[in-house]
Amino acid sequence: MALRVLVLYGSVRTARQGIRVARFITAKLAERGYDATLVDPVDYALPMLDRMYKEYPKGEAPPPMEELAEMIRGADAFVIVSGEYNHSIPPALSNLLDHFLEEWFFRPSGIVCYSAGMFGGVRAAMQLRAMLSELGMPSIPSLQPVPRVGQAFAEDGTPTDEAWHGRVKKFIDELEWYAEALQAQRAKGLPY
C-alpha cells in the first residue's frame, strides 16, 4: 500500500513563491508512488485559531476543518513547506498546524524550507522542529532548504536547475524510512 503523505504549505500571501516548491515536492513524492496531497491553506480558509478541532462536539466542526482532520488522520507522513517570515514560522502555517493536535500524533514530518535569500529558510526550520515535535509529528533529521526561491522553480513547480531532482532524493528516502517504521509501530498499537 502506498504511503499517504500530506504536503502542508504555509503561506497565504498573494505573491507567494513557495507554492512552487510545494508543487515540486508533491510531484516528486507522487513519482515515488506515494499518495501525495498538497494542502494549501488558501483552499481551506481556516479562521484565526479560536477553537481547536477537538474542542468542537463530534461532527460539529466547520466542514473544512472536518475534511482536514480526516486527511490528517489518514496520513502516514507530512512534509511541511515553510518560508521564513522575520526569521520565524509563517502565521498561516502556525494557524493551520495549531487547529489540530492528536490527529498529527505518531507520524513523521519532513521540513522543506525556503527564502528569497541564500539561507533557504533554515531559521524558521529550527523553530518548526520544536513545534512539530510538540504536535507529535517529530521531524526527520534532514532538511531540504531552498535558497533564492524565486529563481529556483517555475510557477508549476518545475525546477530551473535539474540538480533539484537529485537533491531531494536523500530527503525523501529518509522520510520514507521513518514513515514506514512509524506505520509498522502504529499497526502494533499506540503507547497509551
Automatic annotation (TrEMBL):
This is NAD(P)H-dependent FMN reductase. InterPro entries: Flavoprotein-like_sf, FMN_Rdtase-like_dom, NAD(P)H-dep_reductase. GO terms for cellular component: cytosol. GO terms for molecular function: FMN binding; oxidoreductase activity. Gene3D superfamilies: 3.40.50.360. The lineage of its organism: Bacteria, Pseudomonadati, Pseudomonadota, Alphaproteobacteria, Rhodospirillales. It comes from the Bacteria. Residues 4-144 form the NADPH-dependent FMN reductase-like domain.
